[in-house]
Amino acid sequence: MTQYQQVHEGETLVRDGTIKLYGPEGFAGMRRAGRLAAEILDELAGRVQPGVSTETLDRLVREMTLDGGAVPATLGYRGYTHSCCISINHVVCHGIPSAKVLKEGDIVNIDVTPLLDGWHGDTSRMYFAGEPSLKARRLVEITHDCLMLGIAEARPGARLGNIGAAIQRHAESQRYGVVRDFCGHGLGRLFHDAPDVVHAARPGTGPDLRPGMFMTIEPMINLGKPAVKLLSDGWTAVTRDKSLSAQFEHSIGITEDGCEIFTLSPTGQHRPPYG
Ligand code: MF3
Ligand code: CO
Ligand code: CO
């Protein structure tokens, strides 16, 4: 039985399995945090290129986050010490920034999470270093389509599983694998909250979507099989079959008649190649 909790201004929230329902103050806070997150990703478009190290990109993310009056929610999160996650080629998610340098043809996900005035904006996009192969570019395009098809299902009265069903149907129509080991999540004043937003599901299953629910949708789609493996650093997840993987993430809020995307690019830089 899913429990919902109406959130009141100033209330202390805990991750107790309840789905939080936020009011106008929440929408206003998430709009600001989401916009900053999207602006940071916009700014990175010109910086992702062969020869740049992922720790340089991480430093840029940290500086832009702090300049925006926010802090990276990942800094110090469960022992994580970086300002973003950068996942290259067969890395599915949670790639750790390092001295590693991007090379020609890499596909790269950068995932940022500014915490602004108590609200979490969580979003990621793919980037191209130089010109990737046709099959890599196609995976990235279809993965973005999967995210937007999932978002199109997000409205009051629908069920959470409808989102994953739309994503899975499109990905599998291309014989791509949908990662099961990581999910989207509720967020707002908390970084990771109920519900788990699975990216492969049966339509008509899962909790009801209600106005005021905030969540991320962040499908990870593999050119090969869905299975992932965690590296010994405890963070980096890679495809077991070493196939390429892509991901996009938005933070959304359910409205009275659909949903609002908090992390849309203000300059239209939705997917690569960027202007
Ligand atoms: N931003 C990631 C997400 O989409 C979470 C990263 S947590 C970290 O949920 F510690 F790995 F950075
Ligand atoms: Co997320
Ligand atoms: Co994220």
Residues in helix, %: 10-25%
SS field, number of helical segments: 4
The profile of the biggest β sheet is: 3 strands, antiparallel
Per DSSP E runs of 2 or more residues, the count of β-strands stands at 19
Distance between the termini: 47 Å
Sheet-strand content, in percent, reads: 15-25%
Distinct small molecules bound, one entry per kind: 2-amino-4-trifluoromethylsulfanyl-butyric acid, cobalt (II) ion
CATH topology-level name: Creatine Amidinohydrolase
Name of the CATH architecture:
Alpha-Beta Complex
Radius of gyration: 17 Å
Describe the protein's architecture and organization.
This protein has 275 residues and is α+β, with helices and mostly antiparallel strands. The protein has a single domain, classed as Creatinase/methionine aminopeptidase superfamily (Creatine Amidinohydrolase, Alpha-Beta Complex), CATH 3.90.230. It contains four helices and 19 strands. Strands 3-7-8 form a three-stranded antiparallel β-sheet, with helices on one face. A three-stranded antiparallel β-sheet has the order 4-6-9. A three-stranded antiparallel β-sheet has the order 5-16-15, with no helix packed on it. Strand 7 and strand 8 form a beta hairpin. Helix 1 runs antiparallel to helix 2 and helix 3 runs antiparallel to helix 4. The longest helix has 21 residues. It is globular. The chain starts with a strand and ends in a 14-residue tail after the last strand. The relative contact order is 0.19. The model has no long low-confidence stretch (mean pLDDT 98). One cobalt (II) ion binds next to loops. 2-amino-4-trifluoromethylsulfanyl-butyric acid binds next to loops.
